[in-house]
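Supplementary notes for students who missed Thursday's class. We covered one full example, reproduced here. Read the sequence, then the structure, then the short commentary at the end.
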Amino acid sequence: MAESKKTTNYSAEAITVLEGLEPVRKRPGMYIGTTGPDGLHHLVTEIFDNSRDEAMGGFANDIEIALLPSNRVRVTDNGRGIPVDTHKQTKVSALETIMTTLHAGGKFGEGGYKVSGGLHGVGGSVVNALSVYCRAEVHRDGGAYMQEYTRGKQKSKVKKFGSSKLHGTIITFQPDPEIFPDTNFSFDRIANHVRQQAYLVKGLKISVIDARNLSQPSPRLGEGGGKIFYLRELGLDAPSMSFYFEGGLMSLVRFENEHNKPIHKNIFYVEKTTNGNEYEMVEVALQYVDDISARILPFANNIYTAEGGTHVTGFKTALTRSLNTYARKNNLVSEKEDNFTGDDVLEGLTAVISIKLQEIQFEGQTKGKLGSVEAQTMVTSVFGDAFSNFLEENPDDARAIIQKVVLALKARKAAKAAKDSVLRKGALEGMTLPGKLADCQSKSAEESELFIVEGDSAGGTAKMGRDRRIQAILPLRGKILNIERARLDRMLASEQIKNLVVALGTAIGDTFDITKLRYHKIIIATDADVDGAHIRTLLLTLLYRFFRPLIDAGYVYIAQPPLYKIKKPARLASESVAGGGKKDVVYAYSDAERDKYAGEGTDIQRYKGLGEMNAEELWETTMNPAVRILKQVTIDDAREADRIFDILMGSDVPSRKSFIQSNAKKAVLDI
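Structure (token representation):
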């Protein structure tokens, strides 16, 4: 072995030991995935999960999340209350142990929880470590107790501040701006998450209150001997939502399908423990609708596993097997017909899969994918048997489902033949780039950007104003194909979509390969009007349905061009301005910004489209990486676009009419 060059002394002194919660602050991404918006909202999820686990165990039935001034969050439950007596091992209060020690909680040994989501035992302590302020308030055993913390360190011992007839826990925290660049929480994002959880835990009430614009309440409310427990009891004049569902997963399926036409009457549902073990349970609900896309929502111990996992694998296996067996047994397909594939049986399916395990394994701390091997067997067995019985007991529903799957099989074959005629396997790779694409010079996907712009006019301006080395421009002429009910062959016959697929380089469908993506920033740049919003929704839906890995990887963005150009009078031209641009010009991205800069003598120009900007303006406001504003698209954004698309482009006319009537007043029209 060759002798290595000696550069430093490597001894025990070179080993760094991070104590307490220091590892969390040093490497927050290891615990919450990211310090961006996803990680910020993961803090709420971690604290909420602890309260939700109390409800899963039968100890709580009411949870409240309140957004408070100064970006503080208050999570309240009526569970047992975190223990406050002295912990034998740490010699301090159990409350302090849980809030300041990694891997400490009631989810490891016996007597805590049958099943839980926060199995890593890091939820409370990680949130505490990443908060500039945190406060735990506990009501139990006739007393009210509290402890405060700063960046994971207790400010004093746990103290009793009064008597209380209530029971439960209140955690208030304020994210540390040293860790999170943006500490603003999204009310809608939190509400959507807890709505889902309310479906999963029957009989659980969950409320969300946005009290950020109120001077009161103070985070300390509740210290008066437990007189105030839930903020909603104050009758606050603040936006709020409450969720409570007795129907469980069946209610969630109905919600997901509210804008689609079911093809069979009865919703399938099963809830069963495995091998008589109360700690292991499988719960599944499903219904087919008149659509070509599939919606599968998988959960493990009530945690949404966006990347699927073993429980989804078991479900798909049992679903395909059950439908093939029933169709053959009842002569619903000819002997010469091929067996249904996984793709055939998923078309038009809405399914919710929820499993509960005492010992559960996720792939990664953020729990995006289930890794527990036994989950696959559990779901295959429980769901397979129950669904086969459902088909036998509901022949009309079974026949409707089989007919739907047969149509999917025939359409798949026809689409494959048509696709092969439009685009033979591998042909995308060999095709020349579309003529309308102004490609960039760089061959490195990591630094390359693709701007998808609306119209040839904006495309021409963008081509002149871009950084040719790293920025490519693809103009779209008009609105792309409505893909709501379009199969792959028809999509590829669309010149607009084919140009986009070729430009991306990944191919599509069976031949999709994300490693061949030519740009790691795909930026949708449309006009700030109704047509622009429509085109943006069409593109987001296309990417969500057929290029979802690009969204998962964080490669899709929406450009935020300014709405106004404001020229300042000569006497104010020397003043420094925010938002970039020349000293005598400022760009406003909202009406509020416009009002801020519109002083006496200013000249205000309203941009109705990107094509109204010259190359210099487009560069300095929308394309310059140093000053531009980009919104990264998340799966939540894409799912919402998909949901709206279902309403506006689907066959449910009453829902479309209701949506338009409800949202008409929100529209801003330039006439």
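Commentary. The chain has a mean pLDDT of 82. Residues 395-422 form the longest helix (28 residues). If anything here is unclear, bring it to office hours.
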